[in-house]
Amino acid sequence: MMRRINLLGYLAALLVSQSALAVSYPLPPEGSRLVGNPLVITVPQGNTLPLEAFAAQYSQGLSNMLEANPGTDLFLPQSGSQLIVPQQVILPDTVREGIVVNVAEMRLYYYPQGSNTVEILPIGIGEAGRETPRNWVTTVQRKQEGPTWSPTPNTRRAYAKEGKTLPAFVPAGPDNPMGLYAIYIGRLYAIHGTNANFGIGLRVSQGCIRLRDDDIKYLFDNVPVGTRVQLIDQPVKTTTEPDGSRWVEVHEPLSRNRTEFESNNKVPLPITPALRAQLKGAGVDTVRVDGALERRSGMPVNIGYGALETPLVASGQ
């Protein structure tokens, strides 16, 4: 199933833009990868804001909020209704160093050296056919304040097919799609800002990684040149915690081709033999596992027998 919305209609409804800094978590000890707690908020009476505004306020991507709150009105969440903010996550199963981008969940994890914390930021990624790289390790090559943009000939032709004229060169400034700051990784890709007030948690870029203004400014100011950058594709994350509890976090996988992208069917989950072994065995409630794999809420689910639901932390709105 593709993650898509009617961007023209949604943009028309998005009259305000909000931003929030990354969510910062203390690093759990080695052997633990579960951090945070889910939050529940109440949509104010007389609400006039779209779901993107709430996502931005709590530093979530639109896809994260949609996974956690299926059926919510994208354009105008109902006044008085409750929204779950998925602020509990399983850290990716990889080294805790530099920047880790999990394209499947559209999140960027930054591990500041010597801080014993992890900063989690929502991102937008490449649209179908202009994929953000997966399973790649590189470094920050350089940083640029006020980046310019030179669209490739293929990009200009694609825009022309839609009746749009794209210049060969876009100067630095507020109208530049790369925003005000860019962090270049490898030779062809960048982590950058945006001139739009939507697209975080969506597949809308030309392959680069897009962040909200405050988030890219934070990274630009804090990430040194030479920092390790790893891109992964893990729609299913698991952990066995020190107390013996076992958890799974399932996201809707990215489509692998145009047919999947345009289909309304769910994309098959990549269940490897190693992952299958983690989802079975003594102490695992297979009913809860099957439910998590089907629901794909993007939130950690305790899959042990007799496990209690994770308590939601209430917040005023």
Structure in words:
With 317 residues, this protein is of the alpha+beta class. The chain has helices at residues 7-13, 51-57, 62-68, 153-161, 213-222, 258-262, 273-278, 286-295; strands spanning 23-26, 34-35, 39-42, 82-85, 89-90, 98-102, 107-111, 117-122, 125-126, 136-145, 181-185, 189-192, 203-205, 209-210, 228-232, 236-240, 246-250, 300-302, 313-315. The protein has eight helices and 19 strands. The strands form five sheets. A nine-stranded mixed beta sheet has the order 1-8-7-6-15-10-11-12-14, with helices on one face. Strands 4-3-19 form a three-stranded mixed beta sheet.
Give the SSE map.
Blueprint: H1 7-13, E1 23-26, E2 34-35, E3 39-42, H2 51-57, H3 62-68, E4 82-85, E5 89-90, E6 98-102, E7 107-111, E8 117-122, E9 125-126, E10 136-145, H4 153-161, E11 181-185, E12 189-192, E13 203-205, E14 209-210, H5 213-222, E15 228-232, E16 236-240, E17 246-250, H6 258-262, H7 273-278, H8 286-295, E18 300-302, E19 313-315
Parallel strand pairs: 3-19, 6-15, 9-13, 12-14
Antiparallel strand pairs: 1-8, 2-5, 3-4, 6-7, 7-8, 10-11, 10-15, 11-12, 16-17, 17-18
- Mean of pLDDT: 89
* Count of domains: 2
* CATH architecture designation of the largest domain: Beta Barrel
Question: Which parts are unreliable, with pLDDT below 50 for 5 consecutive residues or more?
Answer: 1-19
CATH topology of the largest domain: L,D-transpeptidase catalytic domain-like
Query: What would CATH call the homologous superfamily of the largest domain?
Result: L,D-transpeptidase catalytic domain-like
Secondary structure: helix percent: 10-25%
What's the order of the H and E elements?
A: HEEEHHEEEEEEEHEEEEHEEEHHHEE
Sequence of strands across the biggest β-sheet = 1-8-7-6-15-10-11-12-14
- The N- and C-terminal alpha carbons lie at a distance of 32 Å
C-alpha geometry: globular
Radius of gyration (Å): 19 Å
Under the CATH scheme, which class of the largest domain? Answer: Mainly Beta
Instruction: Say how many strands there are.
Output: 19
Specify the structural class: alpha+beta
Largest sheet: 9 strands, mixed
What fraction of the residues are assigned to beta strands by DSSP?
15-25%
Q: Quickly count the helices.
A: 8
